[in-house]
Write a structure and sequence with these properties.
Elements lengths: L2 H26 L8 H11 L3 H27 L15 E2 L2 E2 L4 H11 L3
Antiparallel strand pairs: 1-2
Length: 116
């Protein structure tokens, strides 16, 4: 697996599957079935939105997910401030080959390319 394939798989798992699952949970979970207080509050909030506002919320969730994923890739690539002052470089090894270095750029280019 190379850096492009890795980013493609992460995008598929996080952006496509996670977001679909998240949207489905909002749409299909009955408030009375939720046991977590945070989730109950989120479902009550969602229930008060009209369809247009729900779509806006889903776009916001998607953008936050994209931004978070890109930031994590940037940390692995070594292009952002080091974590907790750590001075070393990160390596993301696949079969002994470091694929970090351009992950954030590849990810953001794929996002832009697909018109997300």
């Amino acid at each position: 697996m190379n850096d492009y394939e890795f980013v493609k798989e992460i995008r598929n798992d996080i952006i496509a599957h996670y977001l679909k699952d998240c949207c489905d949970m909002f749409k299909n979970t009955d408030i009375k079935d939720a046991t977590d207080p945070y989730w109950q509050t989120a479902l009550k909030f969602f229930a008060e939105l009209d369809d247009s506002q729900k779509q806006i919320l889903f776009r916001i969730i998607r953008q936050v997910t994209v931004d978070t994923t890109a930031t994590l890739f940037a940390v692995l690539d070594g292009v952002t401030a080091p974590l907790g002052g750590y001075k070393g470089d990160f390596e993301l090894l696949v079969d002994g080959t470091n694929i970090a270095g351009d992950l954030a750029d590849i990810f953001l280019a794929a996002e832009e390319e697909e018109g997300a």
